[in-house]
Amino acid sequence: MNIAVIGGSGQLGRDVVSVFRESHDHAFSLTHAEIEICSFESVKTCLQEKSPAVVVNTAAMHHVENCEKEPAAAYAVNAIGVRNIALVTREIGATLIHVSTDYVFDGKKSTPYAEEDLPLPLNVYGNSKLAGECYVRTINPKHFVLRTSALYGKHQCRGKGGRNFVDLMLELARTRGWVRVVSDEFVSPTPTYDLARQIVSLSRCDSYGLYHATSESSCSWYEFAREIFSLAGVQVNIEVANPGEFPTKAPRPAYSVLENRGLNKIGLNKLVSWQEGLERYLTEKVPAPLPSGIR
Ligand SMILES: NC(=O)c1ccc[n+]([C@@H]2O[C@H](COP(=O)([O-])OP(=O)(O)OC[C@H]3O[C@@H](n4cnc5c(N)ncnc54)[C@H](OP(=O)(O)O)[C@@H]3O)[C@@H](O)[C@H]2O)c1
Q: Which residue CA neighbors atom 41 of ligand 1 most closely?
């Protein structure tokens, strides 16, 4: 199959391209230099020329604080940009696989959110992503909207810059020997490689719709950090941060755990527990300069 991956230079996009290629599909990467999703003309020219059967959209403005400061820019990318992709994919008859977020929920529940739960975003990022979801679902019937959570992978997250949470924790342990991490925000940390495999498996079927797609089970950021150090064999002084110790302008859901109910229903849930995903990530990490004390 001919597959186009928008956001192809991103953390998730790069893994999506690799996994499709491993599966012998003809996947090509569309970087920001090649496509500007905010421009209908750019999307149309690019996709019509390549005529893919499947388009995966991983492009987004997802730095939560920047979205709060620049709502027009967030909506231009996460809503109107996605609308452009939905319109063009419908026109060329392509399936659209679009990546969304757990931040469409307000986090007031204490049990995992299913696809049937009412979204109620707390911040501009979540609102703009929800608008993007609505465009996809109402414009192109051949769609998969996948909500995911707390991504990390071997490639750099371009929108947030710096290291992912796992690598940051290991770096802080090495350079400082202590970390303080919040224990009042719960997520399902999901490796980009696992999500990429899930995307490839869905591209083979026509059970279109909205799906939650995160690692199984959940943890607080503090529990996640503890597991990172435990699996990596790192000695570090880890403490629970006080509520409000890391103030942010944009409110965030305290509990954004998702249940992969839809994927289970169609028998295509490929995602493993967050601990298993983390263990594989740490094992496969480039064995180059490991911090001292890490086996
Ligand atoms: N990261 C997370 O923790 C997380 C959690 C839940 C959901 N998600 C969702 O997962 C998806 C992938 O995230 P990621 O971590 O892979 O992000 P990423 O590393 O920042 O990649 C996003 C890619 O989109 C490109 N892009 C941005 N604006 C664009 C535009 N206007 N036109 C064309 N391309 C554009 C970026 O290119 P440039 O960098 O060159 O601009 C980048 O290559 C996003 O939809 C995000 O909302 C992420």
A: 32
